[in-house]
Amino acid sequence: MTESASRTAVGLTIALIGNACFAFLTFSRYVALP
Known about the structure:
This protein is mainly alpha-helical. Helix content is 88%, strand content 0%. The termini are far apart. Keywords: Membrane, Transmembrane, Transmembrane helix.
């Protein structure tokens, strides 16, 4: 892997994890509503 490709892979991984966390928190908030 080149340096730029490695950075891109890390960036995509972080973005995916962030999106998953955001979706989970949003889902939890809707489920927690009475």
